[in-house]
Amino acid sequence: MSVRKRGDKYTVDVAINGKRIQKTVGPNKREAIAVEAKIKEDARRGEFFGFSESAPPFKQLAKKHLELYKAKRSIETESALLKPAIEAFGDRRVNEVAQFDIEKYRAGRMNTPTRFKGKRKPSTCNREIAALHRVFQCAVRWKMIRVNPVSGLEPLEEARGRARFLTKEEARSLLGSSPAHLAPIIAVALGTGMRKGEILKLKWDDVDFDRRLIYIRQVNAKTGVARHVPMSEAVCKVFSSIARNGCVYVFSDGNGKPYRDNRTAFKNALKKAEIRNFRFHDLRHTAASYMVMAGVPMRTVGDILGHTTDTMTERYAHLLPEHRLKAVESLPDWRENAQA
After folding, report:
1. Cα–chain center distance at 88
2. Sheet of 19-26, strands arranged across
3. What angle do CA 279, 283, 288 make, to 5 degrees?
4. What distance in Å separates the CA atoms of residue 171 and residue 173, rounded to the nearest whole number?
């Protein structure tokens, strides 16, 4: 048997094609047996964990991934998603991490409370595993491993995304309750459906008044392309009302740097406006909802929001029945004056 106990830990020692594979698992014998079975099964299929003897520790691969990822999207978000994985797999070589380890890691994350002591949502866990998949995909591209150990993992079932949106009265109240620096940020979110990170990183060079377009610099990780968001006359007026003062960023603090966050100010504005159960991201839902209710085609709404699939826009489909009814009511009564 290739599973042996050394001290207080079990080790797996398997010979594959003349090469000796050794792994230290831990104090649980069942886990060691499962690892042994996984090694043999992967070897049988010709898909052993890895084949590079010089594969680096996971933390080094994650660091390199983040350096490359910086040019695509928010590195702060990706770093936060990968932080627990780096703590879990940091010193293990990337060719020593199997799907079994990923499954065990995910189960542990689901049982780990959030920083607010709440229950972790499946959607949050799925985002973390997706980031982990991106790291291991780098290892595949760089010939450190043959198979991404995350690829065979089915995502956890998520609750249907909510689409909370403001009434016109609530929107006016929120804008009136917001401090001077926050109100235009909220107005742009309501007028474009842009994400908070996209708005806060916006530069004046990205705002094209002549063509009435906003250039979103962050490249979508799924499509690999940037996008342009059209500006209404109302949004143009918001930008025109902001003093530039020689600053590169549209929304900046007194030192010319972009606002990193507006969580406290937004929370206080909601409290003052007596609006409950609302997040900044719901401003994006508000913009999308009103476009749908105005009869804008779902695909057009998805293009403006930067959705990568139609499914992401379908959450607003419940707003369409009234407008669809109006559409069919416009048709004539075909039986009127018809010959018997």
Report:
1. 21
2. 3-6, 9-16, 19-26
3. 135
4. 5
